[in-house]
Amino acid sequence: MMDGLLQGFGVLMTFQNLSLCLIGAVLGTLVGVLPGLGPATTIALLLPISLKLDPTGAIILLAGIYYGVAYGGTITSVLMRIPGEASSVVTCIDGYAMARKGRAGAALGIAAIGSFIAGTFGVLGVMLLSPPLAELVIAFGPWEYAALMLAGLSLIAFFAASGVAKAALMALVGLFLGSVGLDPITGTSRFTFGIPALVDGVNIAPLALGLFGLSELLFLALSGDKKPEILRPPSTLLGFMPNRTEWKRSAMPIARGSVLGFFVGLLPGGGAVLASFLSYAVEKRLTKYPEEFGKGAIEGVAGPESANNSGTAGAFIPLLTLGIPSNAVTALLLGALLVHGVQPGPMILERQPELYWGVIASMYLGNFILLVLNLPFVGFFVRALEVPRRFMATAILLVCVIGTWSTGLNHFDVLLAAAFGIVGFLLRRGGFDLGPLVLAYVLGPTLERSLRQALLISDGDLTQVVHHPIALGFLIVSAAVLLSGLVFRKRPAVVQDGGS
Amino acid sequence: MEIAMKRRGLILGSSLLAVPALAQARWPDREVTVLVPFGAGGSTDVSVRAICAEAEKILGVPMQIVNRTGGQGTAAPTQVSQARPDGHTIGSAAMSGLAIAPHMFEVGYTLDSFAYLPGTARFLYGIGVRADSPYGSIQDLVNAAKARRITFSATGPPNNLGLFDLNRKYGTRFGFVPFQSGAEAVTAAIGGHVEATSQTPPEMIPAIQSGRMRMLASASPARWKEFPDVPTLREAGFDVTIESLLGFVAPRGVPAERLAVLGDAIQRAAAMPAVEEALGRFGMVPAIQTAPEFERAIREGFVRYGEQLREAGLARR
């Protein structure tokens, strides 16, 4: 293995591959910062260009974009409450609250450091655990996915800051939004009202940008000319960094997020998004300061931001060892490999060791580059908060509209985002949490598809689940989560997740 | 919006070129845009890029590939059908968008919305089981499916229609379990969650080569070149094939002489060895058809798939 890694660094130490690693990381950060423009779109755009490169170089570049995005996605979530990527939605909650308390630098700093630790941990995992974990992926069938998604949904019990009934209602709305589009089994259209743009379902970009970004804009507009509450950021680099207490409180969330995200990221489906929500729920459960969650708890940033990074690394295991992409981005990477005539699978280590180890080595270096790139810019990004509110609001609007438009080149999506903006504003004013809505929207389609697949396989017999121990395990976990979240929880102070 | 902008460009372009001396110039005089219904890096995209890379050498103008995804592969044909019929906007077309999707949900075009260009390639399909499955041949599998329900994974039509046809003609009970992507379908089969799969080479070949899957039959008109010993369904005695072709269409109303120029270039390009190699990486084979042959194949496919989808209960009402 050490030989392999050394060979990998040998492959990496050419001018071309080093530059590609750097370009990938920088591009990834940029793409992460720009809401709407996601890694899938960018990689698709760059794929034709990457054909001019050798396969190792091409994958180093494209993979760099992929894991770089998980770094950049945090920035707008913290500064503007606009999720840069779906996997940073949950960061909007406490990251933005921290920014309003003047701790934007700490939030961004801990996110970058957590991302680095988790990303490096993820690559280590890919290197050491690939073959056994590939078997785990194969062991997951429809029953197992359905049960896993159910366990994920049970997490809303922890988001129920506004009360169980409200959270459940939001989850139902999310499930409904996730069911728009073609029926996953019969392929006929549902709730599309004859609108062609809805055949592919409600896109995550208008949903997330509308509910979080545009609704915040309405709050800003309503708050009038009040002075922004942002404290003047310190002028030294160290002043931006998390302080001692924040470090101490973040250490365990980063560790837990790294492990959690890696395993969830392995599995096809909502990988990074599920990982970030899961980590948030776990931290909220374990923290000594539950009353701070929703008001700027650093654990709520450190955990999820670590989880979504190790998740991106985890997704490389099924891709490289089985040729199974676990999300849209790795599907594109698979396409890139095939275009170059590289057949991923267990044979890749024997047939193309220079590619396998070259990519692994580039991921170690890439994560380091990202850390070095991101930290010094934290101060720069935090200064953006000094921008007067009327300019900031215009920028938020512009970013949301362009972000929505760029994902599908579809004006319907922009209208949809506007509608979600108003809905999000009203819901937040009514004291509803938007977390359960997004979580249910992301998990719902996989839950429905897997459950219906399982029922097709068993010919409609729900009791067949007893033959699937992994699935049973998840069901027990969901029950336990629901119980501990609903029955045994301390009565929380009602958290108003609404603007000013 | 996008179309409107393109139109403005066209008007500007044609007014600049409205000089008498140039009126007789060779067509095409500027780039041809090719709309691809699926994203970059997939089998359709790569095949179309390979063909167009050769065709633009013959035409002498660039062919610009635009990935117009959405609407389950129907957004691109919709845009082609609405484009200005001057031959500068064409699209790649396959059975899925033209002959299958209209049976399943509402689309903004009919088969008469297009002028047809040549067909270029054929998708391959195969039937596989996991390596330790008790079924060693396609006959074993079919016999088992006559005795009891056998589940199989596939993405949507046409991948699943081969086994539906077996059900119809030979009284088997294959139960279709849909999966979102080919990779998930194949994984479900090698994990033993379903008993068989009907998919395409890019996902099946790694599973077979790593010893996790056994291929029982090619569901296409020909055997796969990677597994020359595995028979086609037809050779095994079952009158069933899945036919899906990749070709090109233009908006209806493009002048015949322009269609001829484009058609000639596409047909010659598709015969190049570089194209065959690119197709092979994504499990496709060249299948060159003249424009009328391609049109007939699509129209026949539309009728045949319509019947099969209705019988399978997958067509919209």
Automatic annotation (TrEMBL), chain A:
The chain crosses the membrane at residues 20-47, 59-79, 106-130, 136-160, 167-184, 204-222, 259-282, 355-382, 394-427, 470-488. Keywords: Membrane, Transmembrane, Transmembrane helix. The keyword Transmembrane applies. It holds the Pfam family TctA. The keyword Transmembrane applies. Residues 18-439 form the DUF112 domain. It comes from the Bacteria. InterPro entries: DUF112_TM. This is Tripartite tricarboxylate transporter permease. It comes from Roseococcus pinisoli.
